[in-house]
Amino acid sequence: MTETKKKIMIVEDEFFLAETIKTRLEFLGFKVETAENGELALEALRKSPVDLILMDIMMPVMDGFETTRQIKSDPALKNIPVIFVTARAQTSDREKGKLAGGDDYISKPFEWDKLTQIIHQWLTKSS
Description:
The chain is of the alpha/beta class. Helices cover 46% and strands 18% of the residues.
C-alpha cells in the first residue's frame, strides 16, 4: 500500500517566495499548488480541496483574512488547517488571524525548520 501524498496550497502573491516554498515542500514529498490571491485560491479549493493551506495576508484582489473567513464558512473546506505566513507580525495581526479562523501563524522571515514543524503538527492533527 502506498501512502497518499499530502496536498498543500500556498496562497502567496510574491512569485519567488511561493516557488521557493513550493520547491522545498515538494522535495519533502508533498503535492503543492499555488494561488497568487485569495479569489484564485477559493476557486481552486472548491474544485479540489487540499490538506493544509499556507496563507499570506497582504495580497491583491482578496486578502488572507477574508479568504480564510470564506474557507472557514464553507462546510466542505472549514476543516482544512490554515497557517498564516506573513510579514505582519503585530499582536493585533495575530488576533485578526485568529478571528478570521486561522489555525496558526508564522512571521516572515521564518526559519524553515519552524515552518515544517508547524506543517507536520497540523497535518498530524487533521489526519
